[in-house]
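In this section we walk through a basic example: taking a raw amino acid sequence and producing a predicted 3D structure, encoded as discrete structure tokens. The instruction is simple. Fold the sequence below.
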Amino acid sequence: MPAVLAVSVITFAVWMWLGPEPRLAHATVNAVAVLIIACPCALGLATPMSIMVGVGRGAQEGVLVKNAEALERLEKVTTLVVDKTGTLTEGKPKLVDVLPAGGFDAKEFLRLAASLEQNSEHPLAAAIVQSAKEQSFNLEAVKDFRSVTAGGVVGRIAGRTVMIGKPDFLRNEKISGLESLEATAVKLQEDGKTAMFVAIDGKPAGILAVADPIKSTTAEAIKELHALGLKLVMLTGDNRRTADAVAKQLGLDAVQAEIEPAGKVAQVKKLRAEGKHVAMAGDGINDAPALSEAEVGIAMGTGTDVAMQSAGITLVKGDLRGIAKAIRLSRATLRNIRQNLIFAFLYNALGIPVAAGVLYPFFGWLLSPIIAGAAMSLSSVSVISNALRLRKVKL
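The resulting token sequence is shown next.
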């Protein structure tokens, strides 16, 4: 704006000094023509029009963009960090193996475990409870229930102390003799199952194995993301062997297992410190801090409200292919914005000298303010028309 005002003042002065009679009329008309043709409507429309159309196009594909900043940052993303449960997998795990230790009845073992897990909100707990309900077990009330994040749960049921969780959690609760159960768990974990260790009355009682099937669209989505040049890193609180089995099956670039929610945040910070542009995709409450820490947070629409609130982009169907669509949309939108800005600047660069009268000494051409106003409107129409092309972009 200062530059345009300066050009207008210079135009007026030059025409008053060197222009033909009537000098004042010529100077005024040309100075006004400069101001009109340089009216920055096209510049003002260049970005918001593309963003508005791009956000609408994303919504048609099930990609909800909370703000323009997320769409802009997504274009530069080089590394995608993903949670496992509910993001790569269905998020609806099922109990597939009940393996009580010697001396424990299988039905009583599962009934006590399900009674304890009915107080937990974890998806794996829901799988155990659902299995018990399908077998019509009567679940009992739990006293002194306690949950340790990324560890396990403990409580008293009918006078018996029941614990379920990771081996380290049970050891911290003074449970010993878990070696034989850990040996049994290895094969389960190598098959991609999650093994949960159970202790009853201070003794190792057995293992519950839960499997969470990988989404049918995940493998295709990962291929698309790799084709877009992204590196994929999985962060999960699951066991190392289970995580490796899933990562190998899907062809992920890196995996970090047995990691707590705070560890996910630390990993995202580490990747950003290494100069990588990081997006994080997750669906659970424990993913929310990492979603906020990443440059772009992407939440599964099938996940928790907390995750969606922490993210800049939400995938309505929870389909990872939506991330590839979002990246293509981001790149197309930013490319469209640049085209609009280039056109607007180029238009002013050519239009201002003509309005100032530089062609008058050679061809006798002057630009009427009326024509300048029409040209200014035409430039806005051109920018809008270019932005509307995003409605047809293939994602």
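Looking at the output, two observations stand out. Residues 47 and 360 are 35 Å apart (CA to CA). The longest strand covers residues 203-211. In the next section we compare this with other chains.
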